[in-house]
Amino acid sequence: MVSHKCVEEFSLQFPANARAPRSARRRSFKEEEISENDRTCAIDLLATVAENLLSESEGDHCLVTQIHSVKEEFPVEEKPATLPDVGPYQGSMSPCGFSSVINGKVEIEAEGFSNSGAVVLDARPNGVGSLGGGSITSRTKVPSMGAAAASRGALDDVNMFSRDDDENFSGYICPRVTKKSPRSVPRVGDRRIRKILASRHWKGGSRHSEAKSWRSYYLHHQRSYPIKKRKYFEHISDSVSDDYRLRSKMQRGSRTVTTMKGPGASFVSSDSHVRLRIKSFRVPELFVEIPETATVGSLKRMVMEAVSTLLSDGHRVGLMVQGKKVRDDNKTLHQTGISQDNTHLDSLDFSLEPSSEAPHLLSSNPLGHVCEELPICHASDMDTVFKSEHDLALYPSHSFDKETATDVSKALVPAAAALTELSPQPPRHKSKQQQQQQQTAQRRMRRPFSVTEVEALVQAVEKLGTGRWRDVKHSAFEDADHRTYVDLKDKWKTLVHTAKISPQQRRGEPVPQELLNRVLNAHGYWSQQHMETTLALPKPESVLLL
DNA sequence: ATTAGGG
DNA sequence: CCCTAAT
């Protein structure tokens, strides 16, 4: 019983210029650049890894380090009832709505400085709260870490910064929002591995999600908020931060057998843990220019902020396994080949890569592009200059607030900071049998479309038509990394179906009838459109055949 | 990499 | 959601 009747009730203005050949569309889509909106800012991945690893391992004393992400309760801008014509998701899906904290050992290899202890990197947008121990703003408590870490003294929350003027600190660390990146790869990509690994073990759709911790992590970060850009630290060049690489050794971890609900059905899986030993998380090179009269404290802060900015400011952690970049953040470690059983564990690379294509300050870089393979950019490459007034504003310390920075001789301090150290753990072993069980790939988490998403999808399809899912994706789901164009296409398919069946047969979160009407409307329109274009331009062969 | 359609 | 085939 198809209710096409309601279609007439709604008319819709469709763009006159239907669709152009893909070849043509390609060029015109200059601004479609996929933005590396991995506002999963830098340490996000690590945090995720950590969380994943640490979750469900409470009884396990195998904790390696403490990396945890802190979710900040920033106000999320309300989406207007009526979505704007363009970018329906700009409001709700914008990136990076959190700050991250890394606790780890720190070594500053700068002249005269050596420091060890835990450091708290707190990169938070818009200066809410202050840095380091002073901040209490909605910080999640670190789950108890177990004796191993404690014994190593890693738990001491020694703030490396003097507290005397922490107040002046807040607000200086502001991730830059570099929206578009000329040619980056959409997150939707690389499914090759999964293709290979995916198996039929996941037949059927389940209603259950995967491990809770993992999921909630993602849910948290789907909801983001727009960040204001403020670049207080441009004088600390991030050009040097283009890339560094860090090699980590994996060690055999313990395995605990747990029962968890997977998409599909509940099943018992042996949940093995992987231990990553990241020997030193190295920031490429930081150049800090600072007056001699500046205080040690301010120097420390500068380094700290430089590091923080570096991590949050348009950089992201990249991961390479056996020389291949792993782009799909949704893949499990196991799927990716990061397994304690793997023999090539030594070929695991983390890298800090710029998410922006902009060559930062590398004006003298002949290659003209971001040097992903360049571990270091030299000081000569940058023209980092202090603007005295600016500095004074930043560091109103009494010691030099009287003089202008230009009068002061400055010291150029190259600093390489080791940020974290993950402590190794005594290896454990598991049976071969268990190893085998883990080999199967996982189906992606089920993520029902919200009404909001449906709205966005409908609107995009109304505008772009069916069959242009890539464009739809970039138009309305740019920042929704977990929605691939295939997903959108599939969703549209089901939407059309849903619209055709009776409300009683529908399941899940009910989609407003108004939206379904629009779906049918648009579907009808574009279907006809498609027919006409195919008939209007019969292929030469078909002509001959006739 | 995208698109289309079946499973 | 997944998988495949065809672009």
Question: How would you characterize this protein structure?
Answer:
The chain is α+β, with helices and mostly antiparallel strands and 546 residues long. The protein is built from 15 helices and 13 strands. Strands 7-4-11-9-10 form a five-stranded antiparallel sheet. A hairpin with a 4-residue loop joins strand 5 and strand 6 (266-272). The longest helix has 24 residues, at 513-536. The radius of gyration is 26 Å and the shape is elongated. The two termini are 38 Å apart. Residues 1-13, 15-114, 116-269, 356-438 and 539-546 have low confidence and may be disordered. The protein binds a DNA duplex (7 and 7 nucleotides) through residues 22, 186, 188-189, 194-195, 198, 200, 202-203, 205, 263, 443-444, 446, 467-470, 485-487, 489-490, 493.
Structural class: alpha+beta
**Low-confidence runs of at least 5 consecutive residues:** 1-13, 15-114, 116-269, 356-438, 539-546
Strand content: 5-15%
Rg (CA only)? 26 Å
* Total strand segments: 13
Helix content: 25-40%
InterPro entries: Homeodomain-like_sf (IPR009057), Myb_dom (IPR017930), SANT/Myb (IPR001005), TPR1-6-like_ubiquitin (IPR057625), TRP_plant (IPR031105), Ubiquitin-like_dom (IPR000626), Ubiquitin-like_domsf (IPR029071)
Biased composition (Low complexity): 433-442
Keywords: DNA-binding, Nucleus
Subcellular location: Nucleus
Overview in brief:
By secondary structure, the chain is α+β, with helices and mostly antiparallel strands. It is 27% helix and 13% strand. Helix 11 (451-464) crosses helix 12 (469-476) and helix 11 (451-464) runs parallel beside helix 14 (513-536).
